[in-house]
Specification:
- The structure is a single chain.
- The chain is mainly beta.
- It has a single domain, classed as TolB, C-terminal domain (Neuraminidase, 6 Propeller), CATH 2.120.10.30.
- About 0% of the residues lie in helices and about 55% in strands.
- It has one helix and 25 strands.
- It has a five-stranded antiparallel sheet with strand order 21-20-19-18-25, with no helix packed on it.
- The radius of gyration is 17 Å and the shape is globular.
- The two termini are about 25 Å apart.
- It comes from Amycolatopsis rhabdoformis.
- This is SMP-30/gluconolactonase/LRE family protein.
- Belongs to the SMP-30/CGR1 family.
Length: about 280
């Protein structure tokens, strides 16, 4: 089946490679990975904020007071963005990370989970990574081992489950969350591959998953059934999130590139939005 919303709206086509979209107060915050910049995009496509991030921006999320927490892939750090727009390092993850720092999600209480890829997708050979947990008070520690390139992450509304795309294993996995942030692998939700990337959850309990090498965004039920698809029109599906006052819009991030071009930093990034079949839920 193919979900065909009408109309599909182009927000911008001026990005490079849009990852980790996060909606807050009318702005879509995006890690434009291969432009080495954190950007906030208005609904008319204008770039409202831009911060150069030499360590290459990765996952992000908002802690309860509205501070943005940002992971950086290459220098393996966590940064915060103040209300004045200043980026400040708050944690060095180098001693815990075996690959690159990747996606990130922040819970309602401010606890974050951060993916460690285990290797560099562009240059290395596949090996399992980790998921770290972090709070500003406690600092970082390992929450789960043996995760195959942890990518998109979403927390269930009650905070008891963390849903993670394991990109190199072509699966979407569910972990139970302990009170201290430790994760226990629960089950495989779906194996729709190839290479699931970003992730978001709706009020029906279904997840939207972009298939980086599959040319489509898929919506998968809680019991693993394929519900809907959105074709990426020849582009590479990268990430997705919900936005709008009632989280009624599904924002789809994609890139006009190939893996070979991406290794050379050549890409053109797009953000579209469509009316979602069910509004967003959980975090982010």
């Amino acid at each position: 089946m193919v979900f065909k919303p009408s109309p599909s709206q182009l927000i911008t086509d001026t990005l490079v490679f849009p990852e980790s979209p996060r909606w807050r107060h009318g702005l879509l915050w995006i890690s434009d990975v291969h432009d080495y910049a954190l950007k906030a995009i208005a609904e008319d496509g204008a770039v409202v904020h831009r911060h150069e991030v030499p360590g290459r921006p990765a996952g992000s999320g908002f802690v309860p007071d509205g501070t943005l927490l940002l992971a950086t892939a290459l220098d393996r750090r966590l940064l915060t963005r103040s209300a004045a727009g200043v980026l400040t390092p708050v944690a060095d993850l180098s001693d815990l990370v075996t690959g690159l720092v990747n996606d990130l999600v922040v819970g309602a209480d401010g606890r974050a989970w951060v993916g460690d890829t285990g290797f560099d997708l562009m240059t290395g050979s596949p090996r399992p990574g980790r998921i770290l947990t972090f709070t500003l008070d406690e600092g970082p520690r390992v929450a789960a081992e043996g995760v195959e390139f942890p990518n998109g992450m979403v927390l269930s509304p009650d905070g008891r489950e963390l849903i993670v795309n394991e990109s190199t294993a072509d699966r979407t996995s569910v972990f139970s969350v302990a009170p201290d942030g430790t994760l226990l692998r629960d089950r495989t939700l779906a194996e729709f591959g190839p290479m699931p990337d970003g992730l978001c959850l709706d009020t029906d309990g279904a997840v939207w998953v972009p298939l980086l090498r599959g040319g489509r965004f898929v919506r998968v039920s809680r019991d693993g059934r394929l519900l809907d698809e959105v074709d990426a029109a020849g582009r590479m599906p990268v990430s997705c999130t919900f936005g709008g006052p009632d989280r009624e819009w599904l924002y789809l991030c994609s890139a006009e590139t190939t893996m070979a071009e991406l290794r050379q930093g050549r890409s053109r990034g797009f953000v579209h939005r469509i009316p979602a079949p069910a509004p967003g839920a959980g975090r982010p």
